[in-house]
Fold Phosphopantetheine-binding protein.
Amino acid sequence: MPESRVALSPAEYEHPADELEERVAAIMAAVLDVDLVGRRDSFYDLGGGSLAAIRICARIAGKIGCRLDPTVLLEHDELADFVEQIRQGAP
């Protein structure tokens, strides 16, 4: 059973703003084994680290078709900021 994000994240839950944020949030939630990921949740607060970043980026490549360097997630750890990097064509 996934961990509740309420127990992990100090941020108030903010629903993903659009389909891309929803898809990335679902991938992050699955890899991090949490019930959901909000726009302002930090990847680190939810238990993320370098291996999880690699796994998330690999799943994004497979499901969304966008290849990313895991450092993008490590440097832009909130969902909304990370997705903005995807939109801008981050490597």
